[in-house]
Structure formats: structure tokens, C-alpha cells
Design goal:
It is a single chain. This protein is mostly helical. The chain has one domain. It has 13 helices and nine strands. The chain has helices at about 25-30, 45-60, 60-65, 75-85, 90-95, 120-125, 140-150, 160-165, 175-185, 220-230, 230-240, 240-250, 255-270, and strands spanning about 40, 70, 90, 105-110, 125, 205, 210-215, 275-280, 280-285. Keywords: Membrane, Signal, Transmembrane, Transmembrane helix.
């Protein structure tokens, strides 16, 4: 499999919650807790923050629509994805999404390939503890705080003209611009932006009505990785923001985030037959 760099997309997994009260001891708790489901790789720290950085400099309002919280993919659906990595019918599994998150959970962590330093993990989506937090967008205030923590300043943000030049208009977009726009929409499918929000799961809906990980085979955000190797630079030169893109790469944590994200994405692809989701590592302890 061709090794791809990470960029506008990618993803991961962490925790599920348990409503079960503490019973006799850790072993009993472990038996009574429900199995822990995976996450789409898009909500893991490195990948999430790579995508955030690119969206924020493009337009802070885009980054503000990324998910503020993460939640596990229903196990029955993740099983389907491992057999059908390009996606499974959302309509067939819709009833399994949107269940009320449990207030407590097993003590879980990311697999080693998706772990990040504590600063980055604090900036990534937290665990959804309430139903209202599912697919909740960051909002501009939180997005601005994350951007400052990553070292992104106002001088790196594209002007309205530069952004419009990058994405084109619906009537005249080329294939690369279509890929960018679709990937952005997939990464920001939070409440209020789409009829079927799935951002907290790290999933998105295809034109066929399937739900898939944002780095599933041939997913727009995975295809964007190839654009980041060359075509995006050409677009930046054409639209006059190449220095802003260069500053973001050189003066922020972006290179380290890319390295972390690439390892996590490749792990998610390899371990799930291309589905690009990640299983958490859990103990019998409660969080």
C-alpha cells in the first residue's frame, strides 16, 4: 500500500462510556461494562490538529465547525466498515447512532501510534458526556484559542479573495478544488451544517448515502493527501498565499503534528483492512 502523507484529513479512537454503577470490584466492573467501540481517525489528536490548522488558516469559521467532542462508532457499524472499508449504508444503521453517551467509562487510551503529548491531547476533542455534545461544533471562541495554542497568528489567515480563489466557484471548479471543498465539508459535518452530522464519530456521508471514515479508500480527504504534495502549492502560488502557507508550516507545530498524524492514519488503515478507524486500549478501571 502506498504510504500517504497526512493533511486535510485523517483520524482515530478512544473511549466509550458506562452507565453501570461500581459493583463488587474491578473484575466485576470489567465484566459489566459494554465493549468499547472505535473512533474514526479524524478525531485523534495529531490528525484533528493537522486538519484544524489547515482549515483555520483557510477560514477560521471553517475550523469553528469542526467537532468539539468525540464519541465511539457503534460496534455493529464498525464491524460493517471492517468488511466494507469504503462505507456502509447509513440508513441501514441510523438507529444505532446518537445514543445518549454514558457518564462514565473504562479507563482507555489511544494505541501507541495515535498517542500525542499532553498539550495536543488537551486541544483535541474531549469525550462527549451529554447527548447535546454529540457533533457539537467548536465555535469561533474555542477555535481561536486552539489556534493561538498552536502558534497560528492572523498573518497566516487567507483573505476572502485568497480563499475564494483556492476553492473556486461551483460552476468552474476543477477536480482538485472539488476535492478540497468536499473534504472540508466532511471534516465540518457538525450540528447546524448538514442534515446528517457525524463529525464526533470521525465519519461522513458519501453521495451514495454510505457513512465512511474520512480516510477510507478514495475518500476525498485521503485523496487530498496527494494534493498536499504538489497541487496545493501550485494553488497557493496562483492565489497568492504561498508565504502564509509556508509560515504556518515553519512557525507552528505543524511538522510535528504531521508526523504524529501520518503514523496514526497508517495504523488505522493497516489494522482495519482500510476502514481507517482505531480501537482504544482499555483497562478495567473507571475514568
Amino acid at each position: 500500500m502506498k504510504k500517504r502523507p497526512v493533511s486535510f484529513c485523517v483520524f482515530a479512537v478512544l473511549v466509550i462510556f458506562s452507565a453501570f454503577p461500581s459493583l463488587v470490584g474491578a473484575d466485576q466492573n470489567s465484566r459489566d461494562l459494554p465493549p468499547v467501540g472505535p473512533y474514526g481517525v479524524a478525531v485523534t489528536p495529531g490528525i484533528y490538529l493537522v486538519n484544524f490548522s489547515l482549515l483555520y488558516i483557510s477560514n477560521p469559521n471553517l475550523a469553528a465547525n469542526m467537532p468539539a467532542y468525540r464519541t465511539p462508532i457503534p460496534l455493529v457499524f464498525s464491524d460493517c466498515l471492517e468488511k466494507n472499508p469504503q462505507g456502509c449504508s447509513y440508513a441501514a444503521f441510523a438507529r444505532f447512532f446518537g445514543d445518549k453517551p454514558f457518564p462514565r467509562s473504562k479507563s482507555c487510551s489511544y494505541p501507541t501510534a495515535c498517542q500525542a503529548n499532553s498539550k495536543w491531547e488537551r486541544l483535541a476533542p474531549g469525550i462527549a458526556r451529554r447527548l447535546s455534545q454529540l457533533n457539537e461544533p467548536l465555535g469561533l471562541d474555542r477555535a481561536n484559542k486552539i489556534a493561538r495554542s498552536l502558534g497560528i497568528d492572523k498573518g497566516m489567515i487567507l483573505t476572502d479573495w485568497e480563499y475564494q480563489c483556492m476553492i473556486g466557484t461551483p460552476a468552474d471548479r476543477d477536480e482538485d478544488q472539488d476535492t478540497i471543498v468536499t473534504c472540508v465539508n466532511n471534516l465540518t459535518n457538525s450540528n447546524g451544517t448538514t442534515n446528517i452530522p457525524l463529525s464526533s464519530y470521525g465519519l461522513s456521508i458519501t453521495q451514495k448515502g454510505d457513512a465512511q471514515s474520512d480516510c477510507a479508500p478514495e475518500a476525498p480527504c485521503l485523496v487530498f493527501n496527494d494534493l498536499f504534495d504538489g497541487p496545493l502549492e501550485k494553488i497557493a502560488i496562483k492565489c497568492g498565499f504561498e508565504q502564509k502557507l509556508d509560515r504556518m508550516v515553519r512557525e507552528t507545530s505543524f511538522p510535528q503534528l504531521i508526523e504524529n498524524a501520518n503514523g496514526c492514519q497508517q495504523f488505522g488503515i493497516k489494522e482495519t483492512n482500510g476502514a481507517c478507524i482505531v480501537e482504544p486500549v482499555c483497562s478495567s478501571r473507571y475514568d
